[in-house]
Amino acid sequence: MKTKALSGLDMARTLRWYEDKQQRLLEMIPFAISSREKIPCSLRHAKFLQLTRRDLTALWLLFPEEARRRSILRRIDGKPATWFHRDSLASEIGPFTTVKPAEALSLTALVPSYTKYRRFKKSGRLFCDIHLFNIHSLTCPPAVQHIVHAEGFVHEVAHSIIAPAFYNNGYLLKLPSGEIVNGFDWLGMVFGNIAEKHSPISHYAGVYRNAEHSFKKNAGNLLTSISEEMAECIAALLLGFVFCHDKWRQFDPFYDRPKIKQLVHDFLHAEHILASAPIAESV
Protein backbone atom coordinates (compact mmCIF):
# COMPACT_ATOMS: atom_id res chain seq x y z
CA MET A 1 0.00 0.00 0.00
CA LYS A 2 2.82 2.37 0.90
CA THR A 3 4.65 1.65 -2.36
CA LYS A 4 1.49 2.31 -4.38
CA ALA A 5 0.90 5.63 -2.61
CA LEU A 6 4.47 6.80 -3.18
CA SER A 7 4.40 5.79 -6.84
CA GLY A 8 2.06 8.71 -7.47
CA LEU A 9 4.75 11.09 -6.25
CA ASP A 10 7.31 9.92 -8.82
CA MET A 11 7.02 12.30 -11.77
CA ALA A 12 8.72 10.02 -14.32
CA ARG A 13 5.68 9.68 -16.61
CA THR A 14 4.80 13.37 -16.27
CA LEU A 15 8.35 14.42 -17.13
CA ARG A 16 8.44 12.15 -20.17
CA TRP A 17 5.17 13.66 -21.41
CA TYR A 18 6.45 17.21 -20.80
CA GLU A 19 9.61 16.41 -22.78
CA ASP A 20 7.69 14.80 -25.63
CA LYS A 21 5.26 17.75 -25.87
CA GLN A 22 7.66 20.49 -24.79
CA GLN A 23 7.36 22.70 -27.89
CA ARG A 24 3.58 22.84 -27.70
CA LEU A 25 3.57 23.28 -23.92
CA LEU A 26 6.14 26.10 -23.96
CA GLU A 27 4.02 27.93 -26.52
CA MET A 28 1.01 27.68 -24.19
CA ILE A 29 2.77 29.04 -21.09
CA PRO A 30 3.05 32.85 -20.91
CA PHE A 31 6.71 33.35 -19.97
CA ALA A 32 8.28 36.79 -19.44
CA ILE A 33 5.48 39.01 -20.72
CA SER A 34 5.90 42.77 -20.79
CA SER A 35 3.73 44.25 -18.07
CA ARG A 36 3.88 47.19 -15.72
CA GLU A 37 2.25 45.06 -13.08
CA LYS A 38 4.48 42.98 -10.81
CA ILE A 39 3.59 40.02 -8.68
CA PRO A 40 2.69 41.54 -5.26
CA CYS A 41 4.95 39.45 -3.03
CA SER A 42 8.60 39.23 -2.08
CA LEU A 43 11.00 36.79 -3.73
CA ARG A 44 13.83 35.06 -1.87
CA HIS A 45 16.72 32.87 -3.06
CA ALA A 46 15.93 33.41 -6.75
CA LYS A 47 19.12 31.55 -7.73
CA PHE A 48 17.25 28.27 -7.17
CA LEU A 49 14.39 29.16 -9.51
CA GLN A 50 13.88 28.12 -13.11
CA LEU A 51 11.53 31.11 -13.49
CA THR A 52 12.29 34.86 -13.46
CA ARG A 53 10.15 37.45 -11.67
CA ARG A 54 8.69 38.37 -15.08
CA ASP A 55 7.80 34.71 -15.65
CA LEU A 56 6.13 34.54 -12.25
CA THR A 57 4.22 37.76 -12.94
CA ALA A 58 2.95 36.39 -16.27
CA LEU A 59 1.66 33.26 -14.55
CA TRP A 60 0.16 35.28 -11.69
CA LEU A 61 -1.79 37.37 -14.22
CA LEU A 62 -3.44 34.25 -15.61
CA PHE A 63 -5.66 34.36 -12.53
CA PRO A 64 -8.76 36.59 -12.65
CA GLU A 65 -8.59 39.78 -10.59
CA GLU A 66 -11.00 38.51 -7.93
CA ALA A 67 -8.95 35.35 -7.44
CA ARG A 68 -5.73 37.37 -7.11
CA ARG A 69 -7.42 39.62 -4.57
CA ARG A 70 -8.39 36.59 -2.46
CA SER A 71 -4.91 35.05 -2.55
CA ILE A 72 -3.05 34.88 0.77
CA LEU A 73 0.37 34.61 -0.92
CA ARG A 74 3.06 36.48 1.00
CA ARG A 75 6.39 35.28 -0.43
CA ILE A 76 8.01 32.99 -3.00
CA ASP A 77 11.05 31.07 -1.74
CA GLY A 78 13.54 29.31 -3.98
CA LYS A 79 14.82 26.07 -2.46
CA PRO A 80 17.59 23.61 -3.37
CA ALA A 81 16.75 20.51 -5.42
CA THR A 82 14.89 18.00 -3.23
CA TRP A 83 13.72 14.43 -3.73
CA PHE A 84 11.69 11.89 -1.80
CA HIS A 85 14.09 9.74 0.22
CA ARG A 86 14.37 6.04 -0.65
CA ASP A 87 13.71 5.12 3.02
CA SER A 88 10.18 6.48 2.61
CA LEU A 89 9.19 3.08 1.21
CA ALA A 90 9.84 1.40 4.54
CA SER A 91 8.31 4.10 6.72
CA GLU A 92 4.79 4.35 8.09
CA ILE A 93 5.14 8.05 8.90
CA GLY A 94 6.86 9.32 5.74
CA PRO A 95 7.48 10.25 3.09
CA PHE A 96 10.85 11.82 3.89
CA THR A 97 12.90 14.10 1.67
CA THR A 98 16.58 14.54 0.85
CA VAL A 99 18.76 17.01 -1.04
CA LYS A 100 21.24 14.25 -1.97
CA PRO A 101 20.58 12.54 -5.32
CA ALA A 102 22.21 9.32 -4.12
CA GLU A 103 19.57 9.01 -1.36
CA ALA A 104 16.59 9.65 -3.63
CA LEU A 105 13.80 7.14 -4.18
CA SER A 106 14.51 7.91 -7.85
CA LEU A 107 15.88 10.93 -9.66
CA THR A 108 12.39 11.65 -10.96
CA ALA A 109 10.77 11.44 -7.50
CA LEU A 110 11.35 15.15 -7.06
CA VAL A 111 9.58 17.71 -4.91
CA PRO A 112 8.73 20.52 -7.38
CA SER A 113 6.76 22.91 -5.17
CA TYR A 114 5.06 23.29 -1.81
CA THR A 115 2.83 25.77 0.02
CA LYS A 116 3.56 26.55 3.67
CA TYR A 117 0.76 28.12 5.73
CA ARG A 118 0.97 30.26 8.87
CA ARG A 119 -1.31 32.48 10.96
CA PHE A 120 -0.40 35.74 12.61
CA LYS A 121 -0.89 35.25 16.35
CA LYS A 122 -2.42 38.66 17.02
CA SER A 123 -4.74 39.06 14.05
CA GLY A 124 -5.35 35.39 13.25
CA ARG A 125 -4.83 36.23 9.56
CA LEU A 126 -3.86 33.28 7.40
CA PHE A 127 -1.06 33.65 4.85
CA CYS A 128 1.23 31.35 2.89
CA ASP A 129 4.65 31.14 1.28
CA ILE A 130 5.25 29.17 -1.91
CA HIS A 131 8.41 27.10 -2.07
CA LEU A 132 9.75 26.32 -5.54
CA PHE A 133 12.48 23.70 -5.46
CA ASN A 134 15.36 23.84 -7.91
CA ILE A 135 15.18 21.03 -10.46
CA HIS A 136 18.49 19.21 -10.90
CA SER A 137 19.93 18.66 -14.38
CA LEU A 138 20.05 14.94 -13.55
CA THR A 139 16.25 14.93 -13.42
CA CYS A 140 15.26 16.58 -16.72
CA PRO A 141 16.47 19.09 -19.35
CA PRO A 142 16.04 22.88 -18.94
CA ALA A 143 12.89 23.20 -21.08
CA VAL A 144 11.13 20.57 -18.97
CA GLN A 145 12.34 22.26 -15.78
CA HIS A 146 10.56 25.44 -16.89
CA ILE A 147 7.33 23.56 -17.57
CA VAL A 148 7.46 21.80 -14.18
CA HIS A 149 7.96 25.08 -12.31
CA ALA A 150 5.27 26.88 -14.31
CA GLU A 151 2.63 24.22 -13.61
CA GLY A 152 3.80 23.88 -10.02
CA PHE A 153 3.62 27.62 -9.40
CA VAL A 154 0.10 27.95 -10.82
CA HIS A 155 -0.93 24.93 -8.70
CA GLU A 156 0.46 26.52 -5.52
CA VAL A 157 -1.10 29.94 -6.23
CA ALA A 158 -4.37 28.06 -6.58
CA HIS A 159 -3.86 26.71 -3.06
CA SER A 160 -3.33 30.26 -1.82
CA ILE A 161 -6.86 31.02 -3.07
CA ILE A 162 -8.49 27.77 -1.93
CA ALA A 163 -7.08 27.78 1.62
CA PRO A 164 -8.98 30.82 2.96
CA ALA A 165 -12.30 29.25 1.96
CA PHE A 166 -11.40 25.97 3.65
CA TYR A 167 -9.65 27.23 6.77
CA ASN A 168 -11.24 30.59 7.65
CA ASN A 169 -14.55 30.22 9.48
CA GLY A 170 -17.54 31.88 7.85
CA TYR A 171 -15.71 32.65 4.61
CA LEU A 172 -18.36 33.85 2.16
CA LEU A 173 -18.15 33.97 -1.61
CA LYS A 174 -20.40 35.80 -4.04
CA LEU A 175 -20.46 33.73 -7.22
CA PRO A 176 -20.76 35.37 -10.66
CA SER A 177 -24.46 34.44 -10.64
CA GLY A 178 -24.94 36.63 -7.55
CA GLU A 179 -25.46 33.62 -5.27
CA ILE A 180 -23.73 33.93 -1.88
CA VAL A 181 -22.29 30.70 -0.50
CA ASN A 182 -20.17 29.50 2.40
CA GLY A 183 -16.78 28.72 0.84
CA PHE A 184 -16.18 25.62 2.96
CA ASP A 185 -19.57 24.10 2.15
CA TRP A 186 -19.39 25.00 -1.53
CA LEU A 187 -15.97 23.42 -2.03
CA GLY A 188 -16.84 20.28 -0.10
CA MET A 189 -20.48 19.67 -0.98
CA VAL A 190 -20.81 21.22 -4.44
CA PHE A 191 -17.43 20.98 -6.13
CA GLY A 192 -16.32 17.92 -4.15
CA ASN A 193 -19.47 15.90 -4.75
CA ILE A 194 -19.49 16.58 -8.49
CA ALA A 195 -15.73 16.08 -8.95
CA GLU A 196 -15.96 12.71 -7.21
CA LYS A 197 -18.27 11.46 -9.97
CA HIS A 198 -15.37 11.75 -12.43
CA SER A 199 -11.88 10.33 -12.60
CA PRO A 200 -9.14 12.58 -11.13
CA ILE A 201 -8.39 15.61 -13.28
CA SER A 202 -4.69 14.67 -13.43
CA HIS A 203 -2.23 11.90 -12.71
CA TYR A 204 -1.08 13.75 -9.59
CA ALA A 205 -4.63 14.29 -8.32
CA GLY A 206 -5.07 10.53 -8.45
CA VAL A 207 -2.77 10.21 -5.43
CA TYR A 208 -5.66 11.57 -3.34
CA ARG A 209 -8.31 9.16 -4.66
CA ASN A 210 -9.20 5.59 -3.75
CA ALA A 211 -9.37 2.81 -6.32
CA GLU A 212 -13.05 3.58 -7.07
CA HIS A 213 -12.22 7.31 -7.58
CA SER A 214 -13.69 8.46 -4.25
CA PHE A 215 -11.71 11.06 -2.31
CA LYS A 216 -9.53 9.69 0.45
CA LYS A 217 -11.24 10.52 3.74
CA ASN A 218 -9.22 8.63 6.35
CA ALA A 219 -7.09 10.51 8.88
CA GLY A 220 -8.58 13.86 7.96
CA ASN A 221 -7.54 13.62 4.30
CA LEU A 222 -10.82 14.80 2.76
CA LEU A 223 -10.01 18.53 2.77
CA THR A 224 -6.56 17.84 1.34
CA SER A 225 -8.00 15.57 -1.36
CA ILE A 226 -10.57 18.14 -2.50
CA SER A 227 -8.05 20.97 -2.29
CA GLU A 228 -5.57 19.09 -4.50
CA GLU A 229 -8.28 18.27 -7.03
CA MET A 230 -9.37 21.92 -7.21
CA ALA A 231 -5.76 23.17 -7.47
CA GLU A 232 -5.08 20.78 -10.35
CA CYS A 233 -8.37 21.81 -12.00
CA ILE A 234 -7.41 25.48 -11.73
CA ALA A 235 -3.97 24.83 -13.25
CA ALA A 236 -5.57 22.80 -16.06
CA LEU A 237 -8.08 25.57 -16.80
CA LEU A 238 -5.58 28.42 -16.80
CA LEU A 239 -2.76 26.64 -18.65
CA GLY A 240 -4.92 24.59 -21.02
CA PHE A 241 -3.16 21.26 -20.50
CA VAL A 242 -2.93 18.46 -17.95
CA PHE A 243 -0.97 15.23 -17.72
CA CYS A 244 -3.49 12.41 -17.35
CA HIS A 245 -3.97 8.87 -18.62
CA ASP A 246 -6.83 9.90 -20.93
CA LYS A 247 -5.04 11.27 -24.00
CA TRP A 248 -8.19 13.03 -25.16
CA ARG A 249 -8.06 15.29 -22.09
CA GLN A 250 -4.37 16.22 -22.14
CA PHE A 251 -5.01 19.37 -24.20
CA ASP A 252 -8.74 19.60 -23.50
CA PRO A 253 -8.84 18.86 -19.75
CA PHE A 254 -12.60 19.32 -19.28
CA TYR A 255 -13.99 17.85 -22.49
CA ASP A 256 -15.93 15.18 -20.54
CA ARG A 257 -16.73 17.36 -17.49
CA PRO A 258 -18.09 20.78 -18.56
CA LYS A 259 -19.87 21.28 -15.23
CA ILE A 260 -16.56 21.00 -13.38
CA LYS A 261 -15.10 23.59 -15.74
CA GLN A 262 -17.95 25.96 -14.94
CA LEU A 263 -17.51 25.43 -11.19
CA VAL A 264 -13.79 26.20 -11.42
CA HIS A 265 -14.53 29.32 -13.48
CA ASP A 266 -17.13 30.46 -10.92
CA PHE A 267 -14.75 29.86 -8.02
CA LEU A 268 -11.98 31.90 -9.63
CA HIS A 269 -14.33 34.80 -10.40
CA ALA A 270 -16.11 34.78 -7.03
CA GLU A 271 -15.89 37.79 -4.74
CA HIS A 272 -15.07 37.43 -1.05
CA ILE A 273 -17.70 39.31 0.97
CA LEU A 274 -18.43 39.95 4.62
CA ALA A 275 -21.33 38.24 6.40
CA SER A 276 -24.11 40.69 5.55
CA ALA A 277 -26.42 38.63 3.30
CA PRO A 278 -28.30 35.33 3.51
CA ILE A 279 -26.25 32.27 2.51
CA ALA A 280 -27.53 29.78 -0.03
CA GLU A 281 -27.71 26.20 1.16
CA SER A 282 -25.27 23.86 -0.60
CA VAL A 283 -26.90 20.80 -2.10
Describe the overall structure.
The protein has 283 residues and is α/β, with parallel strands linked by helices. It is built from 9 helices and 9 strands. It has helices at 2-7, 12-20, 22-28, 53-60, 65-70, 142-167, 183-195, 222-239, 258-268, and strands at 42-44, 73-79, 83-84, 97-98, 113-119, 126-133, 172-174, 180-182, 271-273. A 4-stranded mixed sheet has the order 1-2-6-5, covered by helices on one side. It has a 3-stranded antiparallel sheet with strand order 8-7-9. A hairpin with a 5-residue loop joins strand 7 and strand 8 (180-182).
Please outline the helices and strands.
Blueprint: H1 2-7, H2 12-20, H3 22-28, E1 42-44, H4 53-60, H5 65-70, E2 73-79, E3 83-84, E4 97-98, E5 113-119, E6 126-133, H6 142-167, E7 172-174, E8 180-182, H7 183-195, H8 222-239, H9 258-268, E9 271-273
Parallel strand pairs: 1-2, 2-6
Antiparallel strand pairs: 3-4, 5-6, 7-8, 7-9
